[in-house]
Amino acid sequence: MTRLQVFLGVLSASLVLALGIEYDLYVGEPSSLEEPAARDIFGKWKRQHNKEYESDEEHEKRFQVFHDNMQYISAYNSRVKSHKLGLNSLADNSHEEYQATRLGHKPDETLQNKCEELPFAVKDVPEMVDWRKQNAVTSVKDQGSCGGCWAFSAVAAVEGIEAIYTGKTPVSLSPQEVIDCDSDNHGCNGGVQAWAYLWIMKNGGITTEDRYPFKEDTESCSTDKLADHVAQIDGCGVVPPDNETAFKLAVAQQPISVAVAAKQKAFQLYVSGVFDGDCDQFVDHGVTAVGYGTQGGQGYWLIKNSWNEHWGENGYMKIAMGVDAQEPGGKCAILSQPSYPVKHGNKPPSHFPPSPPQHIQCDMYSQCDSTQCCACTVSYPGLCVEYTCYESSDSRCHSGFDAAHRAI
């Protein structure tokens, strides 16, 4: 590489710093992978994600991991077009660290013994469902280094069913209460969503996250808060495994807890698009299916994750629909263990308050309404330095890489 190429790489990274560009969506020009430019990008990324390290040695270790991930992302994105990887909030985690801290679902082959297989009575299944737009989904949470994804997944499903049956704006419920107090599961060392439902039933309900905040660790159960019930459920159900039709029917009715195979590096560094990458069928992570739709002709399941809003599409992921002989449980085994909370009674006839306004973030300083696209009007090789908004009904423009980098 010539000195001019290195200089241009550093200049590119310097523009990122000076202009405050959101650089977590993708890796730009090849020159940005060289160490001088990569260090500048790492500095910008640290400020963006409020990252601080305890020592110079730890800082250097994190940079080397970050740099390795940059190179992986660049190579991956050059050959895969359906989805993108990028410098999200987990970009300074090695793949081994990611697997050790972010995954926590324990496979359970006895779900049918704990929750009933209940049919959903629906005549017409919508072509597209997004429970966020029905105001039945709370903001994305962050499990941190606690392997309590199972609790976050179950709580998100309870938040959804509570909103649907009460007609009220959903209240953020407490994963920490379930992590601390459900002795059948293993706190931050993993668990199963169905057992979380059974604990909530046995306890008579669950309290709010404000009243029982998340601590990123398993602590002693705060028994004085156990009777502070804000939401209740009456049972739990399971969707027949490996049945895409039944799963679609279920998601059309309410948010559904699912387990997915998430150990692959592409899952860790995902930022946008319909994920159809390689997965095995061994589930190890709990998330919540909150909708489905189609993008670019490919059907997808919309999942809410618990790795904060700086991972994926503002905390969400689209996983490709479809099963084949190698993936009978669907992509990343999403169809293998779906479960959900049950609430008896009648839903209100008009059971949702107006949804809060949604925005699409173009970069740190620019955003558009959810019905618009971000369009780059001033660009530098590999970067966009100025955005404008334009109206579009094309859902592919509504978030992530396609939104931020589609030209008018």
From TrEMBL:
<keyword id="KW-0378">Hydrolase</keyword>
<dbReference type="InterPro" id="IPR013201">
    <property type="entry name" value="Prot_inhib_I29"/>
</dbReference>
<feature type="signal peptide">
    <location>
        <begin position="1"/>
        <end position="18"/>
    </location>
</feature>
<dbReference type="InterPro" id="IPR025661">
    <property type="entry name" value="Pept_asp_AS"/>
</dbReference>
<dbReference type="InterPro" id="IPR038765">
    <property type="entry name" value="Papain-like_cys_pep_sf"/>
</dbReference>
<dbReference type="GO" id="GO:0006508">
    <property type="term" value="P:proteolysis"/>
</dbReference>
<dbReference type="Pfam" id="PF00112">
    <property type="entry name" value="Peptidase_C1"/>
</dbReference>
<dbReference type="GO" id="GO:0008234">
    <property type="term" value="F:cysteine-type peptidase activity"/>
</dbReference>
<keyword id="KW-0732">Signal</keyword>
<dbReference type="InterPro" id="IPR000668">
    <property type="entry name" value="Peptidase_C1A_C"/>
</dbReference>
<keyword id="KW-0645">Protease</keyword>
<dbReference type="InterPro" id="IPR039417">
    <property type="entry name" value="Peptidase_C1A_papain-like"/>
</dbReference>
<dbReference type="InterPro" id="IPR025660">
    <property type="entry name" value="Pept_his_AS"/>
</dbReference>
<feature type="domain" description="Cathepsin propeptide inhibitor">
    <location>
        <begin position="42"/>
        <end position="98"/>
    </location>
</feature>
<dbReference type="InterPro" id="IPR013128">
    <property type="entry name" value="Peptidase_C1A"/>
</dbReference>
<keyword id="KW-1015">Disulfide bond</keyword>
<dbReference type="InterPro" id="IPR000169">
    <property type="entry name" value="Pept_cys_AS"/>
</dbReference>
<comment type="similarity">
    <text>Belongs to the peptidase C1 family.</text>
</comment>
<protein>
    <recommendedName>
        <fullName>Cysteine protease</fullName>
    </recommendedName>
</protein>
<dbReference type="Pfam" id="PF08246">
    <property type="entry name" value="Inhibitor_I29"/>
</dbReference>
<feature type="domain" description="Peptidase C1A papain C-terminal">
    <location>
        <begin position="125"/>
        <end position="342"/>
    </location>
</feature>
